């Protein structure tokens, strides 16, 4: 039992189960239907943000093109299912494959140099893509946008809104597990080493170019998955959606949620997207200040909680123990004891 | 004095030069290291010692000359044909003058990075956390624990590397090199920042490492007592040029070396 509680997979599955109950709560009248839609979109954004977190959090590279790649996947999936009338599965493959290939090409061209060039290159690519979304009307529908239906699985199972929401939750849990597997071991160490000390990483045999490319590839794949889910859940794609503001929101998610944390990415996504949709936008006076709130949040987090919400629990528990800590037989609180043993360990070791 | 021909060589450096702008940091330098010896590289500040290290490990590409490594199986490799990250595949691993650890990771994870090139884990296998991957990880962890125990820091393995005292961090860096199954370990000022007791321990450790792990060791060091105590051969350089090679005794009594360190007669520095 203890093993199950400690296993991170079960945390992800538990989160998934909680999210799966939301449509029932809406049916029972406990929450609004629109809330479920907002949470669904938040999950979709979480997936793209998680990709960026692998890139930024682990390998220390920045991409300003997340929205562009996400949009490209959305348009391709809409085009393949609607205009070409091909199965959903084909659309998924095309909509993930093409942006990923483009991403790898951008990576190959920009990653040979210092990491910062990736930021510039992705920004340029995203802006070019946005122009394409606006102007290549036969493919994208121009300013009126492209429409897409809900997914039809295996050519027969037409999903409705709630079933699509379930699909999104399942995909999220799967991605959480896969990314957890990738980042906790060999690849995660190599990426961490690359960010921590490029020289040491190289001396230990980490091929910097290869691992930068892998990290960027993961970010692109997840942005594409996110784009596909978006267009089939929301039902349409406007060129104005895929702008720099969205890419910056993904950065905000990571700063607020926490670098290198999967749960942090979810929490950050909830705060950046869901909070403003659910709590700010319904109040007319506050509807227009959401960018301001996001900006203030970023400043607060960078200044006071640079590790994001994911790590705040340590701070809070520490504080609670300090305040309420019961004194033991030696008159020490738990926190004091912990600090003491740590200090002892250090002393013993410096010899 | 070059090492006698009957002994096997591990590293041959011949006529290596590298210049930065107009400055010749290393100037026609040659020396050779025998297998299983501890070889010291000494010289005043700015003599080009770390530059030579960077040339061997291909962080810098030498302008001219050749650097050959002969591995335990007798295979000779021209290191200048390799990229930085390929050097470790030959069995050459280094530490850094200013400890280069991943500060926010645990000591264990830092040591595991040393096995990066040994662990061949396909990406898809990692993605699905296949059994072979879990086994590989568990075995590496066991190996890392043994190395940490050898260096007496096993009890610290789950602590964050960046919060440890300097002495421990230096040990972690050495543990990381041992994790890579090295044939040649290159230590860049291993005693810098250590106190007297720690330096004595280090001297013992370096000798132990050579015996236990059957490696060759090349080190740059300013602590003359350490160098004279543990090295089999020493190469003294000044302004990128070799001024003497020999046993510690020969180096100590060499007038050129004394001049480079203490200046000409009559000068103060």
TrEMBL record, chain A:
Family matches, as PANTHER family? HIGH-AFFINITY BRANCHED-CHAIN AMINO ACID TRANSPORT PROTEIN BRAE, HIGH-AFFINITY BRANCHED-CHAIN AMINO ACID TRANSPORT SYSTEM PERMEASE
Q: What is this protein called?
A: Amino acid/amide ABC transporter membrane protein 2, HAAT family (TC 3.A.1.4.-)
Q: Which organism is it from?
A: Alkalibacterium putridalgicola
Principal place where this protein is found? membrane
Stated membrane topology is: Multi-pass membrane protein
The transmembrane segments are: 38-56, 61-78, 90-111, 132-153, 165-183, 213-231, 251-273, 285-305
Q: Where in the cell is it found?
A: Cell membrane
One Gene Ontology cellular component term attached to this UniProt record is: plasma membrane
Q: One matching Pfam family, short form?
A: BPD_transp_2
Keywords noted in UniProt: Cell membrane, Membrane, Transmembrane, Transmembrane helix
Q: Name one GO molecular function term.
A: branched-chain amino acid transmembrane transporter activity
From TrEMBL, chain B:
Molecular functions (GO terms): ATP binding; ATP hydrolysis activity; L-isoleucine transmembrane transporter activity; L-phenylalanine transmembrane transporter activity; L-valine transmembrane transporter activity
Tell me the InterPro entries matching this sequence.
AAA+_ATPase, ABC_AA/LPS_Transport, ABC_transporter-like_ATP-bd, BCA_ABC_TP_C, P-loop_NTPase
* Keyword Transport in annotation: yes
Report TM segments. none
Among Gene3D superfamilies, the record links this protein to: P-loop containing nucleotide triphosphate hydrolases
- Domain ABC transporter stretches: 11-264
Q: CDD domains, from UniProt?
A: ABC_Mj1267_LivG_branched (cd03219)
Query: Which keywords, in A-to-Z order, does the entry hold?
Result: ATP-binding, Nucleotide-binding, Transport
Can you name a GO cellular component term?
A: plasma membrane
Q: Which GO terms describe its biological process?
A: D-alanine transmembrane transport; L-alanine transport; L-isoleucine import across plasma membrane; L-valine import across plasma membrane
- The protein's name: ABC transporter ATP-binding protein
Q: What's the source species for this entry?
A: Alkalibacterium putridalgicola
């Amino acid at each position: 039992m203890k093993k199950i509680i400690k296993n991170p997979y079960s945390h992800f599955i538990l989160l998934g189960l909680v999210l799966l109950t939301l449509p029932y709560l809406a049916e029972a009248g406990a929450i609004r239907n629109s809330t479920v839609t907002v949470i669904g979109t938040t999950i979709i954004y979480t997936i793209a943000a998680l990709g960026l977190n692998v890139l930024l959090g682990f390998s220390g590279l920045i991409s300003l093109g997340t929205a562009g790649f996400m949009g490209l996947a959305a348009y391709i999936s809409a085009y393949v299912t609607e205009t070409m009338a091909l199965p959903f599965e084909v659309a998924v493959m095309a909509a993930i494959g093409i942006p990923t290939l483009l991403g790898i090409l951008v990576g190959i061209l920009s990653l040979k140099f210092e990491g910062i060039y990736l930021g510039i290159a992705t920004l340029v690519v995203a802006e070019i893509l946005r122009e394409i979304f606006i102007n290549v009307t036969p493919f994208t529908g121009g300013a009126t946008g492209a429409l897409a239906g809900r997914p039809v699985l295996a050519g027969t199972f037409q999903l409705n809104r709630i079933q699509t929401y379930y699909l999104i939750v399942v995909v999220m849990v799967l991605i959480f597990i896969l990314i957890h597997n990738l980042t906790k071991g060999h690849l995660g160490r190599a990426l961490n080493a690359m960010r921590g000390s490029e020289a040491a990483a190289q001396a230990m045999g980490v091929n910097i170019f290869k691992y930068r490319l892998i990290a960027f590839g993961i970010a692109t794949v997840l942005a594409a998955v996110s784009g596909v889910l978006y267009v089939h859940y929301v039902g349409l794609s406007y060129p104005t959606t895929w702008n720099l503001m969205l890419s910056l929101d993904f950065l905000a998610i990571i700063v607020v949620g926490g670098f290198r944390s999967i749960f942090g990415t979810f929490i950050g996504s909830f705060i950046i997207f869901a909070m403003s949709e659910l709590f700010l936008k319904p109040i007319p006076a506050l509807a227009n200040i959401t960018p301001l709130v996001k900006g203030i949040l970023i400043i607060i987090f960078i200044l006071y909680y640079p590790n994001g919400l994911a790590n705040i629990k340590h701070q809070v528990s520490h504080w609670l123990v300090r305040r309420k800590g019961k004194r033991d037989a030696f008159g020490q609180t738990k926190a004091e004891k912990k600090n003491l043993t740590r200090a002892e360990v250090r002393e013993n070791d410096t010899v | 004095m070059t090492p006698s021909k009957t002994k096997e060589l591990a590293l041959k450096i011949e006529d290596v030069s590298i210049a930065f702008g107009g400055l010749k940091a290393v100037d026609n330098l040659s020396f050779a290291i025998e297998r299983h010896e501890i070889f010291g590289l000494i010289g005043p500040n700015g003599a080009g010692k770390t530059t030579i290290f960077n040339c061997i490990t291909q962080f810098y590409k030498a302008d001219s000359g050749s650097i050959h490594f002969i591995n335990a199986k007798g295979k000779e490799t021209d290191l200048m044909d390799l990229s930085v990250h390929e050097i470790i595949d030959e069995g050459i691993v280094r530490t850094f003058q200013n400890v280069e650890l991943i500060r926010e990771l645990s000591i264990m994870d830092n040591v595991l990075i040393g096995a990066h090139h040994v662990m061949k884990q396909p990406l898809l296998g990692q993605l699905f956390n296949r059994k072979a991957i879990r086994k590989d990880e568990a075995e590496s962890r066991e190996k890392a624990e043994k190395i940490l125990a050898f260096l007496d820091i096993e009890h610290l393995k789950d602590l964050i590397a960046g919060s440890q005292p300097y002495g421990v961090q230096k040990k972690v860096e050495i543990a990381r090199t041992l994790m890579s199954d090295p044939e040649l370990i290159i230590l860049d000022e291993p005693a810098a920042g250590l106190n007297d007791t720690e330096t004595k321990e280090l001297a013992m450790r370096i000798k132990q490492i050579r015996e236990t792990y059957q490696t060759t060791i090349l080190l740059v060091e300013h602590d003359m007592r350490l160098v004279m105590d543990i090295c089999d051969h020493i190469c003294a350089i000044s302004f990128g040029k070799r001024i003497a090679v020999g046993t510690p005794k020969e180096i100590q009594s060499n007038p050129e070396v004394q001049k480079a360190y203490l200046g000409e007669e009559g000068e103060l520095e």
